[in-house]
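debug: dumping io for the single-chain case to check the tokenizer round-trip. Nothing else runs in this session.
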Amino acid sequence: MITGYMIVKLGIINSLLSRRQIRLERSMKKIAVIYWSGTGNTEELANSIAEGAKEAGADVNLLAVDSASEEDALSADVIAFGCPATGNEEVEESEMLPYIESLGDKLSDKPMVLFGSHDWGDGEWMENWQDQMEEYGVQFLADPLIVNLEPEASDLEEARALGQKLAE
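debug: decoded output
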């Protein structure tokens, strides 16, 4: 038989659990993983970064750049931007570069990391991209993750570890 006392006690317990859940949600880092991928290689890296961050308890928003809004980036505690080298060692120019440029100085002091893949060259596109982001005043949390061609299992594990680091 349920008594009034038991109902009150259950109500108090539910209230305490709700408050704890709210505190946990507030303490979770919100991470945006925003990428452009032509062949799927950078998308694989993005998925692994997102998995690692989720495993570490972060709230992750994984988006292809054509689906990302300004708010998706600016409301995140941490951003992981991914793009392969295209053309002549450049960040993709029709979607990713305009998105980054639209954010510009709004990214000042934003913690982030860059990642991507390339087929040839020496990573010049990533160096140039880092320079551009530094001009915006971002705070890099780690060196960029650069993968040659299709990611191997060790590359995907490194991406997963990077996601975990972002969630710290």
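debug: round-trip ok. The first strand starts at residue 30 and ends at 35.
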